[in-house]
Fold this sequence. Notes:
Two copies of one chain form a homodimer. With 335 residues, the first copy, chain A, is an alpha+beta fold. The first copy, chain A, has a single domain, classed as Cyclophilin-like (Cyclophilin). Chain A contains five helices and 17 strands. The longest helix of chain A has 12 residues, at 78-89. The radius of gyration of chain A is 21 Å and the shape is globular. At the A-B interface, strand 5 of A face strand 5 of B.
Amino acid sequence: MTRLPPLTLALALAATALPAAAQDAPAPVTPASVVAGAPASDWRAIDPADLLVMTLAPDAAGQPRVVTIQLIPPPFSQGWVGNIRTLAKAHWWDGTSVYRVVDNWVTQWGDGEDDAAKAKRLPAGLREVPESEYTADAPSTVTASGIALYYQANAGAQSPSLFNGRIVFRGQKSWDYAAYAAGFPYSGSMDPHRSLAWPIHCYASVGVARDLSPNTGSGAELYTVIGHAPRQLDRNIAVVGRVIEGIEHLSALPRGKGEAGVYSDPTLRVPIVSVRLGDELPAADQPKFEYLDTDSASFARYLEVSANRNDPFYRVPAGGIDICNAKVPIRRVKP
Amino acid sequence: MTRLPPLTLALALAATALPAAAQDAPAPVTPASVVAGAPASDWRAIDPADLLVMTLAPDAAGQPRVVTIQLIPPPFSQGWVGNIRTLAKAHWWDGTSVYRVVDNWVTQWGDGEDDAAKAKRLPAGLREVPESEYTADAPSTVTASGIALYYQANAGAQSPSLFNGRIVFRGQKSWDYAAYAAGFPYSGSMDPHRSLAWPIHCYASVGVARDLSPNTGSGAELYTVIGHAPRQLDRNIAVVGRVIEGIEHLSALPRGKGEAGVYSDPTLRVPIVSVRLGDELPAADQPKFEYLDTDSASFARYLEVSANRNDPFYRVPAGGIDICNAKVPIRRVKP
């Protein structure tokens, strides 16, 4: 197919490649080719216990709709992640719905009932998580000395760079940075007065909807990002994971026309049949995924090539990359 | 409605406000309140001659679908914009379709036929636009002295700042920046050896699909961004405008399952009934929009408030903003 902007990596992995360069030239190195060539030892299994499998009602054509969410690992947002495990084990989301869709913003699901007298009763054992848990101590593999980093790279500047063997993005201030830990992007501040880190929003991130601060939400009402990363929500809302398969079942829904993008027409609500932790499913049905180790040489090369595209479609390599455009490669493992 | 992440500005303007703060506190200043309070003199009319009105076939429920696109003003991409005017005047898009939708990437429309023997014949008078027109001389209102700017701001750093009365985003290199000209975001380099500027991709930007470089596309096949801004396409593809109304008719379509996200099921293609320049329509039907002057004090205040939210939902103001999250306010003018 011609006249097409190139595919994103995730799709390029599955799709037929674009036309190759002239046969006498070496095959171009692309983000997809780096990922395809990564040795098995650079991939890490995702524990099914860290996955949520959300089954929606079939679509109008009767096609199944399953959304798989990976919960964020420590040190981030573990209070809410714990609540989400409790909610899933209680099968609390069964019979709730996707009830809010705002273009270039979020799709949201859960009970969606404001009136406390009508709201679905929450299970026992949920924690009230304080705002202090929006941030955490920085993952220990990032150290303080000499960091000069950061995140949303721009065209022609801000390449990711290596520091102590870690890939980091330089910040405007010398103490601000972004990096990856255990396969997730995060940001942090090495300000000597407060050494904090926090998970960041990207497309398909999953977060905990809430009322006005200081409420932080229980984890029962969740949203996923379906547009440009809302950076202003970082540290203001809990990021608890990301959709790793089936985002199109949430991003391609009709936009809501009620207040705040809620479906005023209740027939548009998408019924949630069930939400299960992956390890609650029968062994044969447990989802098996791997992510490319963000500490690996393959991932370093993937970032470098992503930031400096020189395959035939491109004429000006950006020389940098936005961390939300450098998505951590994830693949389904064949059983 | 509670338990909601806050609305984006564009929607907040239309929707009921979130619950107000306690009555004894002054009403919080928000991006929406700044825009609502901007004097009439800070708004600029968009010439209907610079709008494309794309009418799609009605949706499955029989509802009309109209997408309005604003063409980018000089100095950017005028070769392609000229072609697009020629194509629209020839009614070339009538009977073509939306044929490609890739999640977190683009929705694309036009003829979509690779086989030159089968492709729809293009009208006379189209230019072959060279790659050199991906960049332009920087708009004259940005000057060189002392620029220390730039664009994708991060949490806690990279606030937009004022320079020579212009709002700019600081770059990693002292000569890279982003700013706004005539209501559109762009980026540039003040490198003394090449003082260039170029339009940038954001959500809802419209660009010219093309084959491999050095092909630049005629303008007949167009796409719009439906995900995180693909910064790597800047200077590699022509940005020719943006969708200012009706993006949901392109972003909420089913994702394509064929090669490169093309609809392999041709019944999914969305017929394009017509595409017209706004000034070709009967006077009563001409679309009337205004944008907030990006050189105005209101816009400066809008950016400052957007970068430093302190209304009750927020607990940590970001202290900066990504230029693609600082969308230029646009409003429909009542006839």
